[in-house]
User: What shape does this take?
Amino acid sequence: MTFTLSAESEKIVDELLTRYPTKRAACLPLLHLCQRQEGWVSAEVIGYVAQRLELATSEVQGVVTFYTMYHQHPVAPNVVWVCRTLSCDLRGARELQRHLEKRFECHANGTSKDGKFTLKTAECLAACGQAPMVQINDDFHENLTIESLDRILNDIAAKTAVGKG
Amino acid sequence: MPDFPIVLTNRYRVPQSWTLKAIESLGAYEVARNCFTTLEPAKIAAEVKDANIRGRGGAGFPAGVKWSFLPKDSKVAPYLVINADEGEPGTFKDRTLMELDPHRLVEGCLIAMRAIGAHVCYIYVRCELVTSIRRLEAAIEEARERGYVGSRPFGVDHPAQIYVHMGAGAYICGEETALLNSLEGMRGEPRLKPPFPAIKGAFGAPTIVNNVETIAAVPDIIRMGGKAWSDQSRLPRDGGTRLYGVSGHVKKPGVYEAPVGLTLRELIYDLGGGMLSHDRPLKAVIPGGSSTPVLRPEDLVHAPDANHPLHAWHGQSHIDVPMGVDTYRALGTMLGTCCAIVMDSSTNIVDAARNLMHFYAHESCGQCTPCREGTGWLHNLLDNLCAGKGRPEDVHLLVDVANNMMGNTICAFADGTAMPMLGFLQKFREEFVEAAKRGVQPHSLGATARALGGLA
Assistant: This one.
């Protein structure tokens, strides 16, 4: 199955390509656009990006595997990143992570039993003054306690519909 | 709380401070207009040189001097690239500028482009900072609508385009040549230097890479005059005010603006509100991001020689030495990003070191063997020590591995790993020896947070 970007996103790509002297420079932003549509970076996405930017698929593959934020496997509708680095660890990040593993019944890089959340650990997310924190999708949630994190997750879970099976 | 002049952050408290509407009456873009319509580019660069602003990204190189490295006879226009890949553990200052005053950064970019003759500026922001990216893009759009950004900024024939470029989650892309490779759409692996970016940078053209805070300070430097701006500092050859961050075991973690030359004691006890738990005193502080070697409050400056740069602080605690690029180098650590991680007496240093070495092992780009292997070894050894599977000789092995990483790689990442590792080993050796015998209590680092409730 080949991957195609929506017509609206294709317009964004056309504009992106005007920003740089080379096509290749659009590689990272284009991968982000594709991931936003598809949820992850599949082999088909890599094929599409390579063809659109006139690169070898191996070159795009090399980029995808270098950067943490490209999902190389499908993820749940919500991705929870727990910051594990020192400032957060000093304020209870490990407790948050343990709690999330229990709540989701999975380890880091796994997906919760209900299929709504993928759990990941993150390296320093530049929110050290508001530790401990997690990033859920696009949003930072800071100065967390287990209770406040649970409330946030309950809200998100209630709004997330998943087709089980 | 001390009363410091607020310059860089003076618009942080304005409601909706990230919109042009909210800050226009406070003088936004007036300096840029003046720079495009009246001031000579050479004069702008001269003021920045006079300001003695040391790069705020961590290396502390004088920004004005950096600009002067651009070739004078180049036929291609240089690029301006802003390093907004803030990711050094403990560092969270640039994010506040991008979220709360993106127009100040955009104005700084315009002025810098005018000064160095650049027509295109890329702001490389790590993609996790979604709010920063949205507000910056909106700010650029607002500036474009007013005609400040575009083909004729302020009606002057000096095209100036500014684009946000998203990273994709790689700490190493904060290294300027890795950042350039990443900008060009490749893996973020640092380049061999020379050539330095000022000669051959983005897309083969001369390029200046500056930190967010450095460029955001430029409008005030021009407005106040380089010398007056510099004189706000308490130290010579290291000018201005800057953003200080403090996190970890303090009551009021956060980002604060103060003159260059504040002491760690002031940062922790005045701005940071003191230690989080009154019965757990300060044990150690990582002064400027995780790559800077740790300091202890009980260590005293030994500089009896009158010519020693720290002679004025002879006999005083390390945390009473003013935080400056040169003073901290003399102290055997580094100022780095000026964002301190504070650890109280409950902290197990071996566990803290393990946390950071996990970070470095994860973030090494893998290009150079000493770094790729060394970071992994340090992390594995510390994992074993903490798990109670260590051997007495592992302590020496940690020193050995760290020493073999230093100076043997393309970029400074390996040194930035080995130096803090050696700092921990030198100052807390007995804790490592102890861990080799008995391991480390699991979940030791969250002890204070647990004791204070909420996370039990």
Observations:
- The radius of gyration of chain A is 18 Å.
